Predict the structure.
Amino acid sequence: MILDRSNTALVVDSTADLPETLAHDPNLTIVPLTVFFGEEAYLDWVELEPAEFYEKLMAAPALPKTSQPSPAIWGELYGKLRLGFVQE
């Protein structure tokens, strides 16, 4: 099997901070980390854009914390991607 765009997907988490031209590639999926500012939680790049992150960072009394996506989220994503690339 030759790997090409028709049978290959790239999956990264949101800490990859890819340029927008690459981030919108249809073969790329970005899984967001959760960013916590105190008790408030945001999905990175979904609910919290970089500019807003830095605004909150400057105003926060403590550094933010992050949490990786759960194994269930990864499993669900890979299952969906596999269905899109299965060849008979």
In short: The CA atoms of residues 31 and 74 lie 8 Å apart. The longest strand covers residues 10-13. The radius of gyration is 16 Å. Strands lie at 10-13, 28-31, 34-37, 40-43, 65-67.
